[in-house]
Amino acid sequence: MAGLKRRVPMHSLRYFISMVGLFSKSGLLPWYARNPPGWSQLFLGTVCKGDFTHVVATKCQKGQKSQKKPSHLGPLDGSWQERLADVVTPLWRLSYEEQLKVKFEAQKKILQRLESYIQMLNGVNVTTAVPKSESLPCLLHPIIPSPVINGYRNKSTFSVNRGPDGNPKTVGYYLGTWRDGNIVCVRSNNLKNIPEKHSQVAQYYEVFLRQSPLEPCLVFHEGGYWRELIVRTNSQGHTMAIITFHPQKLSQEELHVQKETVKEFFIRGPGAACDLTSLYFQESTMTRCSHQQSPYQLLFGEPYIFEELLSLKIRISPDAFFQINTAGAEMLYRTVGELTGVNSDTILLDICCGTGVIGLSLAQHTSQVLGIELVEQAVEDARWTAAFNGITNSEFHTGRAEKILPGLLKSKEDGQSVVAVVNPARAGLHYKVIQAIRNCGAIRTLVFVSCKLHGESTRNIIELCCPPDSAKKHLGEPFVLQQAVPVDLFPHTPHCELVLLFTR
Ligand SMILES: C[S@@+](CC[C@H](N)C(=O)[O-])C[C@H]1O[C@@H](n2cnc3c(N)ncnc32)[C@H](O)[C@@H]1O
Q: Where's the Methyltransferase domain (predicted)?
């Protein structure tokens, strides 16, 4: 990050420390740095020693002990962009090697907490049959690093609000909170996880807003029109931009004028420098609208963005979920694939499948792939991707997994080999999905992918592993957590994907 000092303020350190809790005294951490090895090597690899306590202690000495987190937001302590970097990418001051150690420790804590919940529920240690390390409930593999460390995001969402100079037409990321009424919108130019292209489009959107006679929509009930900007890019550099707009009481004709103006700006005006592949416009009167609630209107260009991944050409609609780090996603999906252990007799259930990448990448090794996804556009993408790549043994269902899955599993007999992969959104899985999985004897293997194992996701896992409970209709045998693999898709941030293998 050009121009920013590698100084570690106390509030950042407090954050790291609270995240990892008490560090392992043994200092023995499975650990790979710099050169991401191949999957097999990672999976079978040896461990090497790293003493994270030492890393934090050194950083603490460098930090200023007396420094307090300021209660107001003013440019007194470092630049606005430095502050933004500390909020959005709080690990950015650490080397990537150090970041991975922090994350590995955090994942270990999560697993230890999970183990204590499961033990409490069962009254005994139900996972003693499983190979353990450092009192963990399962085999914890080394963290798989992201192949790309900087500018890895393929999707960024920019807000519009008052900048540090008070200009309400500023495009960037928020500092402060709505509750405290101290929101400041700061440009993203120095965030390590955002590619230059995304910041460029955001800057040109800001230029456009500043010349528009219409006001931005800062607070919903106070009027205004221009809202957030989403930028998506692929590995080839194709760029899709989506502008959200509050129509207020504009007539269709007035709306048309606005759409033409912004289109002209990005095709022939200063915004042409962004070389957009497509521009979408969404009229939205709610905080967030799906395509079904308010369609994405293509103002110009290609309606989809495509990505090459695991030898597949994947179509991605503006509304479809796609992992935000493409190279990291490839590592994640390979990990999932290895853990499923599918063969030509396996029916693979891809629950919350998004554009279907997990299932489709394994289709050739299975007898059938069944995907379930809520977002219709994503399911259409999955079907397109299957057809384009010549995959004929996949079937995708649109709707809520809790509605579709019980019916889908009814016909599955105990002797069949069904492997389930679940990759829910942060809200976790509906209890009916857990019931359906538990009660389907054909499912002996389950791979659970989570980027935030807390709240509902933790409850999901507990309900998968707890003893049979007829009141909760958990009749089938409990699952046992066997292995866990952390995969880092989010360098510079504390987030990490965790892939869990359960069997029964
Ligand atoms: C974390 S994403 C994973 C997508 C996909 N596995 C991938 O890697 O691209 C979670 C997906 O679950 C979908 N989803 C959320 N709630 C759902 C539900 N109740 N039933 C089915 N899908 C749901 C979301 O639309 C989103 O595509």
A: 344-408
